[in-house]
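As noted in the main text, all predictions were made from sequence alone. Below is one such record, for Quinone oxidoreductase PIG3-like isoform X1.
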Amino acid sequence: MKQQCRMALAVAGAFPTLARRNTRYPRRRLPVASKMKAVVVTGPGVLRLREVEDPPAITAGEVLIRVAATALNRGEVPTEGTYSPPEGSSPYPGLECSGTVLDVGRSVDRWKVGDQVCALLNGGGYAEKVVVPAMQVLPIPQGVSLREAASFPEVACTVWSTVFMTSHLSAGETFLIHGGSSGIGTFAIQIAKYHGIRVLATAGSVEKLSTCKHLGADICINYKTEDFVARVREETGGKGADVILDYIGGPYLQRNLDSLNIDGRLFIIGCMGGITSEVNLSSLLARRLTVQAARLRHRSPESKAAGGGAACLASYRSRQGETCDPRVSSLVRSIGGSQADGEWRKYWKDTAN
Ligand SMILES: NC(=O)c1ccc[n+]([C@@H]2O[C@H](COP(=O)([O-])OP(=O)(O)OC[C@H]3O[C@@H](n4cnc5c(N)ncnc54)[C@H](OP(=O)(O)O)[C@@H]3O)[C@@H](O)[C@H]2O)c1
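Prediction:
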């Protein structure tokens, strides 16, 4: 699948220090103490390449991966403050990766040493090696390179588990995705189109709107120059969208409700614009609207596996479709070490509003 706004970082034999320690990492090391490289968040907005201890020894149900590539995700590193992974997670950033299986724990029969895979991580992708629950490991789609595969798990699992598994977006319905040129948006447009859904996408520039169009969006709306509520109503004969995927949050809540059809479903996965809002509840009552929200990172491995597995199947099937293209983007490049810091900062600066 094409993901125009994401970067896959090739880990060229280099890469994560303990920004902070947690209860799991210091105790169980690989039997022979060895070091690896990792990208470490050393302060607000600062990444450094450091030599650090290897990951903990794998236990039953886990897989050790030698990381080939990882991807940048807006959700994983705050623009202010230091990196604060959930308790028990790797201390290094990196919510997804691709690479080669180095070792498998007891009871893992789906993967073997040498397999090339991609994986949804709890962190740790910005390192040479990472331990991950086997159920969060995914096969690489045919025709997709090892590097490209690093940018697949997070968006696929997020989009599939929210709008498809939970909001039941179905063929023939209308879907509004905000920020259609984002990592999430580029995947959402393609997978929705493949499933026979009419897609409306918002973006903030002519270039980004053209990306959405190229990926298959039926209607592209410039949220900076147009009122998206009015446009959605106009394009749907006054009815509104059946499902909306939103990560702007507070400032968009009422406007999203106003853009939904009867029995419409709004799924919120982020709050880039703010976390509070006042809403008129009569819009929910009158049109039987549903509002849901979820954060992938805090889900259990079983829940991630369910979303990831289903997303995987859905996406791999969609690769038979004509509209799909496995390129990541011209942003993909081989970077490592100090270069990663510059690229990372540029990414956040370029995409910040
Ligand atoms: N809940 C979860 O499990 C989960 C998982 C993954 C991601 N997320 C969230 O999803 C969001 C997107 O992540 P990403 O990695 O795909 O981000 P990304 O690639 O960095 O793209 C973010 C895009 O948002 C767009 N944007 C900003 N304000 C907008 C607005 N008012 N209306 C429409 N678009 C707007 C910007 O494009 P323009 O220039 O067009 O404004 C920007 O390119 C983040 O908030 C992230 O935290 C949540």
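Confidence is low (pLDDT under 50) at residues 1-5, 11-29, 319-353. The CA atoms of residues 70 and 97 lie 4 Å apart. These features were considered when defining construct boundaries for the mutagenesis experiments described in Section 2.9.
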